[in-house]
Specification:
Blueprint: H1 2-12, H2 16-45, E1 54-63, E2 70-78, E3 81-85, E4 94-95, E5 103-107, E6 113-123, E7 126-134, E8 139-141, E9 145-155, E10 160-161, E11 167-175
Length: 177
Protein backbone atom coordinates (compact mmCIF):
# COMPACT_ATOMS: atom_id res chain seq x y z
CA UNK A 1 0.00 0.00 0.00
CA UNK A 2 2.89 2.33 0.76
CA UNK A 3 4.21 1.82 -2.76
CA UNK A 4 0.89 2.89 -4.28
CA UNK A 5 0.78 6.00 -2.07
CA UNK A 6 4.35 6.90 -3.09
CA UNK A 7 3.47 6.50 -6.79
CA UNK A 8 0.37 8.71 -6.39
CA UNK A 9 2.43 11.39 -4.60
CA UNK A 10 5.00 11.25 -7.42
CA UNK A 11 2.35 11.67 -10.12
CA UNK A 12 0.56 14.47 -8.22
CA UNK A 13 3.78 16.49 -8.31
CA UNK A 14 3.50 16.73 -12.14
CA UNK A 15 1.25 19.22 -13.99
CA UNK A 16 -2.21 18.05 -15.12
CA UNK A 17 -1.33 17.83 -18.82
CA UNK A 18 1.61 15.46 -18.04
CA UNK A 19 -0.64 13.24 -15.88
CA UNK A 20 -3.22 13.02 -18.72
CA UNK A 21 -0.54 11.98 -21.24
CA UNK A 22 0.86 9.40 -18.82
CA UNK A 23 -2.61 7.95 -18.14
CA UNK A 24 -3.35 7.77 -21.89
CA UNK A 25 -0.09 5.88 -22.48
CA UNK A 26 -0.88 3.39 -19.70
CA UNK A 27 -4.35 2.75 -21.18
CA UNK A 28 -2.85 2.37 -24.68
CA UNK A 29 -0.22 -0.13 -23.51
CA UNK A 30 -2.85 -2.16 -21.61
CA UNK A 31 -5.03 -2.28 -24.73
CA UNK A 32 -2.15 -3.40 -26.94
CA UNK A 33 -1.14 -6.13 -24.52
CA UNK A 34 -4.68 -7.51 -24.24
CA UNK A 35 -5.23 -7.37 -28.02
CA UNK A 36 -1.90 -9.04 -28.73
CA UNK A 37 -2.67 -11.88 -26.34
CA UNK A 38 -6.08 -12.59 -27.95
CA UNK A 39 -4.77 -12.42 -31.54
CA UNK A 40 -1.88 -14.78 -30.69
CA UNK A 41 -4.39 -17.26 -29.26
CA UNK A 42 -6.53 -17.07 -32.39
CA UNK A 43 -3.53 -17.56 -34.67
CA UNK A 44 -2.34 -20.57 -32.68
CA UNK A 45 -5.79 -22.15 -32.92
CA UNK A 46 -5.90 -21.99 -36.74
CA UNK A 47 -3.78 -24.48 -38.71
CA UNK A 48 -1.43 -22.76 -41.14
CA UNK A 49 -1.12 -24.31 -44.58
CA UNK A 50 2.48 -24.44 -45.74
CA UNK A 51 3.00 -22.58 -49.01
CA UNK A 52 3.69 -24.94 -51.85
CA UNK A 53 6.70 -24.45 -54.05
CA UNK A 54 7.35 -26.35 -57.23
CA UNK A 55 10.08 -28.48 -58.73
CA UNK A 56 10.90 -28.97 -62.39
CA UNK A 57 11.68 -32.58 -63.19
CA UNK A 58 13.44 -33.38 -66.46
CA UNK A 59 12.57 -37.03 -66.98
CA UNK A 60 14.56 -37.75 -70.11
CA UNK A 61 15.34 -36.88 -73.72
CA UNK A 62 14.67 -38.58 -77.05
CA UNK A 63 16.34 -37.64 -80.32
CA UNK A 64 15.04 -38.27 -83.86
CA UNK A 65 16.70 -40.15 -85.43
CA UNK A 66 18.22 -41.55 -82.28
CA UNK A 67 21.60 -43.18 -81.92
CA UNK A 68 23.45 -44.80 -79.05
CA UNK A 69 26.34 -42.48 -79.95
CA UNK A 70 24.38 -39.29 -79.06
CA UNK A 71 25.17 -37.23 -75.97
CA UNK A 72 23.22 -34.20 -74.79
CA UNK A 73 23.20 -31.17 -72.55
CA UNK A 74 19.80 -29.69 -71.77
CA UNK A 75 19.16 -26.18 -70.50
CA UNK A 76 15.81 -25.27 -68.96
CA UNK A 77 14.98 -21.56 -68.72
CA UNK A 78 12.45 -20.93 -65.94
CA UNK A 79 11.39 -17.31 -65.39
CA UNK A 80 14.74 -16.19 -66.78
CA UNK A 81 16.89 -18.53 -64.66
CA UNK A 82 18.97 -21.27 -66.32
CA UNK A 83 19.00 -24.86 -65.04
CA UNK A 84 21.46 -27.27 -66.66
CA UNK A 85 20.88 -31.00 -67.07
CA UNK A 86 23.04 -32.90 -66.27
CA UNK A 87 24.57 -30.88 -63.46
CA UNK A 88 25.56 -33.39 -60.83
CA UNK A 89 28.80 -35.18 -59.96
CA UNK A 90 30.88 -33.30 -62.54
CA UNK A 91 28.96 -34.84 -65.46
CA UNK A 92 28.88 -32.44 -68.43
CA UNK A 93 27.25 -34.63 -71.11
CA UNK A 94 24.72 -37.42 -70.81
CA UNK A 95 24.32 -40.37 -73.18
CA UNK A 96 20.80 -40.56 -74.62
CA UNK A 97 19.09 -43.85 -73.78
CA UNK A 98 15.64 -45.02 -72.64
CA UNK A 99 17.11 -45.65 -69.17
CA UNK A 100 18.78 -42.24 -68.76
CA UNK A 101 18.38 -40.71 -65.35
CA UNK A 102 16.36 -37.58 -64.80
CA UNK A 103 17.06 -34.58 -62.63
CA UNK A 104 14.95 -32.39 -60.37
CA UNK A 105 15.38 -28.64 -59.86
CA UNK A 106 13.79 -26.76 -56.95
CA UNK A 107 12.17 -23.58 -58.28
CA UNK A 108 11.62 -20.33 -56.41
CA UNK A 109 7.99 -19.77 -55.42
CA UNK A 110 6.09 -17.88 -58.13
CA UNK A 111 2.50 -17.42 -59.29
CA UNK A 112 3.38 -18.83 -62.70
CA UNK A 113 6.37 -20.34 -64.46
CA UNK A 114 7.48 -19.49 -67.98
CA UNK A 115 9.53 -22.45 -69.17
CA UNK A 116 11.45 -23.23 -72.34
CA UNK A 117 14.18 -25.71 -73.17
CA UNK A 118 17.24 -25.92 -75.40
CA UNK A 119 19.42 -28.92 -76.20
CA UNK A 120 22.95 -29.30 -77.38
CA UNK A 121 23.83 -32.66 -78.88
CA UNK A 122 27.01 -34.27 -80.13
CA UNK A 123 28.25 -37.65 -81.24
CA UNK A 124 30.77 -39.50 -79.11
CA UNK A 125 32.78 -40.07 -82.28
CA UNK A 126 32.89 -36.32 -83.14
CA UNK A 127 32.79 -34.30 -79.94
CA UNK A 128 33.69 -31.04 -81.69
CA UNK A 129 30.52 -30.99 -83.84
CA UNK A 130 27.84 -29.71 -81.46
CA UNK A 131 24.31 -29.16 -82.78
CA UNK A 132 21.79 -26.85 -81.10
CA UNK A 133 18.13 -27.82 -80.84
CA UNK A 134 15.49 -25.34 -79.68
CA UNK A 135 11.90 -24.19 -79.98
CA UNK A 136 10.04 -20.91 -80.15
CA UNK A 137 7.46 -22.22 -77.69
CA UNK A 138 7.41 -20.96 -74.10
CA UNK A 139 5.25 -22.89 -71.66
CA UNK A 140 3.31 -20.82 -69.11
CA UNK A 141 2.32 -23.02 -66.17
CA UNK A 142 0.68 -22.13 -62.88
CA UNK A 143 -0.28 -25.61 -61.69
CA UNK A 144 1.23 -29.10 -61.87
CA UNK A 145 1.74 -30.36 -65.41
CA UNK A 146 3.48 -33.17 -67.27
CA UNK A 147 4.36 -33.14 -70.93
CA UNK A 148 6.81 -33.41 -73.76
CA UNK A 149 8.57 -30.36 -75.19
CA UNK A 150 9.54 -30.60 -78.88
CA UNK A 151 12.84 -29.13 -80.07
CA UNK A 152 14.02 -28.46 -83.62
CA UNK A 153 17.44 -28.26 -85.21
CA UNK A 154 18.93 -24.79 -85.55
CA UNK A 155 21.40 -23.56 -88.17
CA UNK A 156 23.38 -20.68 -86.62
CA UNK A 157 24.87 -19.65 -89.97
CA UNK A 158 21.53 -18.92 -91.60
CA UNK A 159 19.62 -18.34 -88.35
CA UNK A 160 16.91 -20.80 -89.37
CA UNK A 161 15.11 -23.43 -87.37
CA UNK A 162 14.23 -26.81 -88.82
CA UNK A 163 10.56 -27.54 -89.50
CA UNK A 164 10.87 -31.11 -88.27
CA UNK A 165 10.96 -32.25 -84.68
CA UNK A 166 14.51 -33.44 -83.95
CA UNK A 167 14.06 -34.22 -80.27
CA UNK A 168 11.75 -34.12 -77.28
CA UNK A 169 12.24 -33.44 -73.61
CA UNK A 170 9.95 -35.15 -71.10
CA UNK A 171 9.25 -32.84 -68.16
CA UNK A 172 6.99 -32.39 -65.15
CA UNK A 173 6.16 -29.40 -62.97
CA UNK A 174 5.31 -30.86 -59.58
CA UNK A 175 4.61 -29.53 -56.07
CA UNK A 176 7.67 -29.79 -53.85
CA UNK A 177 7.39 -32.13 -50.91
Amino acid sequence: MDILENILKLFSSYPTWARVILLANVVCIAGILSFARSSIGEAAAQPVAAPLGYVLRIKGVRLFPGSEQDEIQCTAFVNGTEYRYPSVAGVDWLAVAPTMSGQTFVLPKAERYEIRFELQKRRRSNREDIARLLSQETLTLSKPATGVYDVHGFDPTSGTRSGTVDGEIAYALEPSQ
